[in-house]
Amino acid sequence: MKKVIVLLFLSVLLSCVKAGVPPIADSQKAETINKESSSKEGASSNNGVIPEYQVVEIEDVSFPSVKRYTVRVRVDSVLTSSELELVSRRIIEELEVTKPHNALWIGYYLPDSDTDAAYTAGKAVWAPDGDWGKADESPTGNYSKHKLSLSIGNATGIEKEEVEVSGLALDKRKKIFFDLVAAQDRGVGDSEAYGIIAEQYNVDESTVRKIAVEGASQGWPMP
After folding, report:
1. Does 80 fall in a domain?
2. Whole-number Å distance between alpha carbons of 73 and 49
3. pTM
4. Which whole-number Å values give the CA distances from 46 to 7, 13, 98, 152, in the listed order?
5. Tens of pLDDT along 78-105?
């Protein structure tokens, strides 16, 4: 249920201001890197230091004869292009050995983001021509045609500053978002839920709506 709510929030977000398992498209322009592109080049631009990361989940989303995995990774901050390549290549190298595959989708998440929601700190796709949809065009374990496609930032392409609600502490905004989703999960209608939460926290209903957009775009935790 909460995933449906997130998608509804993101629909509002994209219509007012302008989610994440493949093949859902996002608004980020992907940077595709050839397999031959040396990870050493990325390392030199980042002094050879790979940012700290934690693999939270590896999910098998294969279909007959095609092995595909989605990987969800926790990082401390939004990754730069070089950082994204360094971490992604490290993960890819490990999975080439432990989980031979046709394609990988790697989503990166900020510390306070829900890893069941859209990515918030970057995305990488490792597949033939860097295209998840072409996973069946190479034999499993053969990476000769693979390229690394990178997307910087979050899935919406919206910067945090564009949707940040001022005047309330971050912790309070997160509680409002959490309780709003919980209310809607219980079957409370959208309009009624906004009103209930507004009264509960003594804020305007419009503020609750803005927090809903902020929380959904930033991948805040949900019930």
Report:
1. yes
2. 17
3. 0.68
4. 35, 34, 27, 16
5. 889 999 999 999 999 999 999 999 999 9
pLDDT at res. 185: 86
**What number is the average pLDDT over the span 104-110?**
95
Backbone angles phi, psi at 122, to 5 degrees: 135, 165
Long-range contacts of 196-201 (CB under 8 A, 24+ apart): 201/172, 201/175, 201/176
- What is the CATH classification number for the domain harbouring 176? 1.10.10
Claim to verify: residue 101 and residue 208 sit in the same structural domain = no
What is the rounded distance in angstroms from the CA atom of residue 205 to the CA atom of residue 166? Answer: 15
The closest of 55, 51, 121 to 86, measured between CA atoms, is: 51
More confident position, 223 or 54: 54
Query: Are residues 58 and 108 both part of a single domain?
Result: yes
Q: 214 lies in which domain range?
A: 161-218
